[in-house]
Amino acid sequence: MSKDTIGNLLTYIRNADMNKKRTVRIPYTTIGENIIKILLREGFIENMRKHQQSNKCFLVLTLRHRRSRTGPNRIFLNLKRISRPGLRIYSNYQGISRILAGMGVVILSTSRGIMTDREARLERIGGEILCYIW
């Protein structure tokens, strides 16, 4: 039985967002931490910190909320896993699709690490398409 850590990470975040949770605790993995750093840098989440409980590490995420006069409004995260353990999807830098005309983010796993579609196009490098976020 294989584990899809990226799929689990996206599901944790998606479920917390749908249930109007402000924070979510995710098991720590290095690839998960790299994806979360991209989400943090792109402004989809507000904060990330490591938390250690006994001998296990967790990432605690604070989801982003917009403020309005009537109260905080949630920003709905649309997360879609593309490449999965049973079907890997690869693309060169020219074939990476643009999500919402550049408003969304495509996260890729390349030979130079985890990066966004914009970074991959600038460096002219392709890789495995992990997920779409908008």
Quick recap:
The protein is of the alpha+beta class and 134 residues long. It has helices at 5-18, 30-42, 117-123; strands spanning 23-27, 45-53, 56-63, 65-68, 71-74, 79-81, 90-91, 105-110, 113-116, 127-133. 25% of the residues lie in helices and 39% in strands.
Question: What report would you give on this structure?
Answer:
Part of the 30S ribosomal subunit. One of the primary rRNA binding proteins, it binds directly to 16S rRNA central domain where it helps coordinate assembly of the platform of the 30S subunit. One of its GO terms (biological process) is translation. The protein is of the alpha+beta class. The chain has a single domain (5-66, 75-133), classed as 2-Layer Sandwich (Ribosomal Protein S8, Chain: A, domain 1). Helices cover 25% and strands 39% of the residues. It is built from three helices and ten strands. It has helices at 5-18, 30-42, 117-123; strands at 23-27, 45-53, 56-63, 65-68, 71-74, 79-81, 90-91, 105-110, 113-116, 127-133. The strands form three sheets. Strands 6, 7, 8, 9 and 10 form a five-stranded antiparallel beta sheet that branches. Strands 1-3-2 form a three-stranded antiparallel beta sheet, covered by helices on one side. Strands 4-5 form a two-stranded antiparallel ribbon. The protein is globular. 21% of the residues are buried. The model has no long low-confidence stretch (mean pLDDT 92).
